[in-house]
Amino acid sequence: MHPPALQFSDDQAEAYDCLATAFRGAGIDLVEGELSPISEGRATVMAVIGKAGSGKTMLLAELYRGLRSAGVEVISGDYEGRKRKDRRTLAILAPTNKAASVLRLRGVPATTIHRILYTPVYDPEYEKIAEWLAGTGTRPVIDSLAIAGLTDLALDRAQAFYQQVASIPGALAAAGLKGSDFIKGWKRREEPLDVGFVDESSMLDERQFDDLREIFPTLVLFGDPAQLAPVGQSGQMVFDRLAEGQKLILHRIHRQTLDNPILDLAHALGDERLDFEDFEALVQETARRDGRVVWAERVEAQLMARSPVLVWRNATRVRLIQAFRNAYGAPEDRLLPGEPLICDGIELPLKHRKKRIDLEARGLIKGAQVIYLGEGNREGFARLHVVGAEEPQVSAASIIKIEKPDEEEPFIPHAARMGAAFLHGAAVTIHKAQGSQWDEVQVFAPDLYAAAQSGRSEAGVPLWKRLAYVAITRAQTRLFWVVRNRLARPTAPLTVDDLRREPAPLSLTEASPSGAGALG
């Protein structure tokens, strides 16, 4: 068995062959491009494990292309057609919208775990259009649809959109249809799928892992063993407990990453002899010869608006957020458009479970990165841009909290009675940054020095090294190693001009009080 003609390393080729064998045993032959019905009762869990730059994403993308070429149907998060006995399915998942967007930028149609655990319930009239767009139904006749104002020209616009971007909500929005009309709610998935790929699986907790095993008879985890384990799991990732035969290890760092000083620094942390002072000297030396690493004497406030400063201690996070707001002249009683936020969860009583699902389905899950756009049209609502979401513009009932140094209770400049809760996002802990990447990243080195001085370890590795590894590998093009507790003031005011302005097709919003968005 041979993988596609691609520049695979030996360990990638071996991993591809092992997974292809597992797929063939499950009735999917990548070599012959043939499919067999799924075998009931058969379950397989495997993991592809490797550090940053070892080619996990490259392998995932090639496996996706192989499965698609064999006729496997890719299930997205926004629409799923009727179940057919003969179909085989694949879903590519990530724990957060930001992590999923990293894959989508590389041509891999990823969605969040939540969007697969829960599926939209479509109005039957609109579902006829969705089935036609997805290729499982005929073009609807306008006169036969009970949808006011819909025209053939609108259907043509929807089809043209879907051919460019395979998003059912986006296509229906292009036809002038509102999400509050065509999606009536969300339900937990009742039918299992087939093959599941999970990127950034080091972030999975036990409950998520159990949920995924219920849905996918064939589950492949892609993860980095050097990252930080989820809180409460004693330093272990879910793939650590798999048998050796279930784990495929990628060792080689690929040619395109060999000349990457950021990854060089990350991998240097694997040297047991390296202490914090030696590592900082290595950072400084790298910065002298390569502009992709910057030895920074202060935090840049302007960068914080779109990529948070990464810290270890909460006290540091709160101080940097306050300094950021002061630098931009933000008033204490309100937010400025362009201020970054982090979703801290959904504050809703149990009886509002459907509303919770609706908010989470739009990307407002714990840890999601959001940019504040301004007040909504109803009291307690905020207009938001969900970073990494396929349809990022949202209006939702929001509870926004701003913590202040030396004050136990946060200040709340924006408060609905219940809804999505947010903290300020100009600085975040390294734990919360896992799964995300930014072009430029600022790492607050004094906090890592404090972690080194604490002498703490996680799974036998000094904590400061795990923190440094995760923080450094969040940077795609440039790393700022900040060595002093100072802030450089911005040279321009906050703006939202860089954000996409398309309206959200699925409104959470300023609908009638009985609608999904009426949380205020």
Helices and strands in order:
Blueprint: H1 10-25, E1 28-29, E2 34-35, E3 44-50, H2 56-69, E4 73-74, E5 89-94, H3 97-104, E6 110-112, H4 113-117, E7 118-122, H5 124-133, H6 152-164, H7 168-174, H8 179-182, E8 183-188, E9 195-198, H9 206-215, E10 218-223, E11 247-250, H10 255-258, H11 261-268, H12 276-289, E12 293-296, E13 299-300, H13 301-304, E14 309-311, H14 314-327, E15 340-347, H15 353-361, E16 369-375, E17 381-386, E18 393-402, E19 411-415, E20 419-424, E21 427-429, H16 430-433, E22 438-444, H17 445-454, E23 457-458, E24 461-462, H18 463-472, E25 475-482, E26 487-488
Parallel strand pairs: 3-10, 3-11, 4-5, 5-6, 5-9, 9-10, 12-25, 13-26, 14-21, 18-20, 22-25
Antiparallel strand pairs: 1-2, 7-8, 15-16, 15-20, 16-17, 17-18, 18-19, 23-24
Helix pairs in contact: 6-7, 11-18, 17-18
Characterise this structure.
Helix 17 packs antiparallel against helix 18. It is globular, with a radius of gyration of 24 Å. It is 32% helix and 23% strand. The strands form 8 sheets. Strands 3, 4, 5, 6, 9, 10 and 11 form a 7-stranded parallel sheet that branches. With 520 residues, it is of the alpha/beta class. The chain is built from 18 helices and 26 strands. The relative contact order is 0.13. Strand 5, helix 3 and strand 6 form a beta-alpha-beta unit.
